[in-house]
Amino acid sequence: MEGVHAHDIATILDRQGIAIRAGHHCAQPVMERFGLTATSRASLAFYNTRQEIDALVDGLGKVREIFE
Fold first, then answer.
1. Active site includes 26?
2. Distance of CA 30 to CAs 3, 5, 24, 37, 50, Å?
3. Which position among 2, 3, 17, 26 bears the catalytic label?
4. Rg (the chain; Cα; Å)
5. pLDDT tens digits, residue range 31-60?
6. Global pTM?
7. 22 contacts 56 by C-beta, under 8 angstroms
8. Are 63 and 13 in contact (CB under 8 A)?
9. 39: left (phi > 0), else alpha (psi -120 to 50), else beta?
């Protein structure tokens, strides 16, 4: 999300019960190459439910609302 720090995204989602990763992800050289201080990453797998994915999408909408 352009203009929103990765840790802000993670904090807002965490308050909604949604866990994501934020930070360097052990890839500092790549982060430097692209001029990024941090990124946010959601990890999805076959066991995630549609409701969990919908909650993530709704949570990201809330992040966008807060930072608009």
1. yes
2. 19, 17, 9, 10, 32
3. 26
4. 13
5. 999 999 999 999 999 999 999 999 999 999
6. 0.88
7. no
8. yes
9. beta
